[in-house]
Structure formats: C-alpha cells, structure tokens
Amino acid sequence: MKNLLKQFIAIALVTIISVSAFAYDFEVDGIYYIVNGEGTVAVTYNNRAHDYTGNIVIPAEVTYEGITYTVTAIGTSAFENSYSSLSSVTMPNTITTIGNSAFAGCIGIWQIDIPASVTRIEDNAFYGCTGIQSIEIPHGVTEIGGYTFYNCVNLRNITLYNGITSIGECAFSYCTMEQIAIPSTVTHISSWAFSHCYLLSTVICKGETPASLGNYVFINTHIDTATLIVPCNAAANYQNATEWNSFGEIEEDCEGIYVGIEGVKVENDNSIFVYPNPAKENITLEVQDDIFIYNDKGQEVLYVNSPNRKTTINVANLPKGIYFIKAGERRQKFIKE
User: SS3 of 4, please?
Assistant: First the structure.
C-alpha cells in the first residue's frame, strides 16, 4: 500500500512538473506560443522564465509541424518582468487582444505601438512600464482595464479615441501627463483612475453629460488648481457633479477650438489641402495619415483608416456647420454647407 502511495505521489509530481515546465505549445525562432483557437495562437512565456531579450518582432503568422497559425493575442504575462533586458516588441496587425499583465514590469521598453487591430487591453497590461512616454489606444478599444498603465511614471502623452466607454480602476495612476482629453463616449471612470498624476493641469471632457466617477478618481492631482474644459453650455452639468466640481476652474469650449483628442487649438493654417471648402457633398484631402473629422464640440463624426494619398470623403449627411480635420500632426477647418 505504501509503495502504491509512493508511486502515485511520484506520478503526480511528474505531472505537475511537466505542466509547469511546458506552459507553451511550441516555440519558433525564440518566441513561445500557445494555441488559443482553431488556427490561432497567442504569444506566451517559457516556464515563466521571462527571458525575452532585445528587440522582439512578432510575426503575423507562424508555422509549426506543417500547420500555419495566425497570431491573434499577446497572452497573459507573456513578457511580464522581462525588465530592462527587453528593449522593444513589434506587434502585427493580426493582434486583437493584449492579455492581463502582458508587459507588466518591462522597464526597458520606452515606446510601444499598439496595432489598430487591437480591441481588448486587459488589466495590468502595461503595469510599471516606467520607460513608456506616450501611448495611443487604438480606435476599436472600448474599455481600458484596471491598473493598465499604473505607475508608468514617464507616460506623458495619452491618446484616447471615441468608442472607449470606461476607464478602469487606477488605470493611469502615477502617470505624468499634464493634459488628458476624455472622449464623449466615456460613461464611467473607476476609482483612482487618475490618482497621483501630480502634473495634471488640464482635463478636456468631450461629453455634455459628465461621466460617472468612482471614488477619488483625481485624488492627489491638484485639481483644485487645474482647469476642466467642457462643451459649450455644459459647465452647469459638471458644476453639479461630484468631484468634477472640485476643479479650480471650469471653462466652456464654445468656439470649438479644443478639437479631437489632444485638445490642441486649431488654426486655419492650410496644413491640410481640402477641397472644395466650403462643401456640400464631398471633400477631397491630400494626406496619407488616418483622418479624423470632428464637429464644433470636438466630437468625432467621421474616421478614415489608412487612406490613399488623395482621399474623397462623403460629407452629405453631416449637418451644416464648422468641422475640424486631423491627420497626423496636421489640422484644418472646413465648412459644410
């Protein structure tokens, strides 16, 4: 009986060791993968060794034992705690999900481009990535998870697009941006989301109705001396909303100068060639960057992904008025007749 028990324990130990030793399904060119669906894989780690180093380029497809898989996710903890040994990770446009703690603790990464294909960023994804200075959340992401950019102490530039509906707990705590523009689609911001952002001096809210807030969203951010900029005729809504009314000053943007996501004043400097202008049916633009069009309240009304060098956009359904175009770093006004 004792011998049988010893054999059972031995088998159990071997099983546990085997499972922990092979957290991946296969490895190709130094990158570890786990099958996460029929014909798809996620990038993962090697026995939690977290020994990725240098510059990692993830392919859109990978072939193993005659089967070709599409790489669709950065899995849970895939690069976690690779510390300063990991310099950069280039992701393909097949990635749709960045998993929990995927890059947590990767202090050596100073820039990361999240593909436009990503629609889900899970909790803790970039927790403690102290080297990252700017981040652009893709257009298709609807939720920012809890602690996603927590303690990213050099994160100064944050781009959020319309479509995001919620910002998770402590999502941007301890970041160092001076300004943040919150899209009109955001309906809830969880507790401590912007806590300890000591340099935050301007918050631009695009929604006429204030997003609901958890506890202490802006605690230790000196909002008593910060400026809150809101749409025209919306100041009263924010003055009557808990914590929003704690800002030192609430200003209304009645001239539509704080456009889009960065809240940069738009000048009619002809930096984008738009014709005809004014227009009734179509406008043509000569740019190659993604195109964003906003109304005079700074709300996004049209988006064109990866346009041609010369792109024609139908604006017939837009109400008459002044609109603002953003393409890369360039901006322009046009009038819809």
Answer: helix
Rounded CA gap, 237 and 71, in Å? 45
Number of CB atoms found within 10 A of residue 37's CB: 11
Task: List the single range of 12-26, 269-283, 310-324 with lowest mean pLDDT.
Answer: 12-26
| 8 A C-beta contact, residue 322 and residue 263 | no
Q: Which run of H or E residues covers position 16?
A: helix 2-21
Residue by residue, DSSP assigns 105-163 as T-TT----PPPTT--EE-TTTTTT-TT--EEE--TT--EE-TTTTTT-TT--EEE--BT
What is residue 106's predicted lDDT score, i.e. its pLDDT? 94
Round to whole Å and give the CA distance between 39 and 48: 24
Render pLDDT for 100-131 as a digit per residue (tens, 0 to 9): 999 999 999 988 999 999 999 999 999 999 99
Which helix (H) or strand (E) segment holds residue 12: the answer is: helix 2-21
Q: Give residue-wise pLDDT tens across range 225-265.
A: 999 999 889 999 999 999 999 999 999 987 666 655 444 44
Rounded-to-integer distance, Cα 58 and Cα 314, Å: 37
Number of helices and strands (H, E) in the chain? Answer: 2, 28
| pTM of the shown model | 0.76
Burial of 337 (0-12, 13-18, 19+ CB in 10 A): exposed
Q: Are 147 and 127 in contact (CB under 8 A)?
A: yes
What is the rounded CA–CA span in Å between residue 110 and residue 319? 42
Burial annotation 323-332 (CB, 10 A radius, 16+ → b, else e): bbbbbeeebb
80 contacts: CB under 8 Å, gap ≥ 6: 45, 50, 101, 102, 103, 104, 105, 106
DSSP summary character for residue 272: S
* Residue 69, strand partner residues: 62
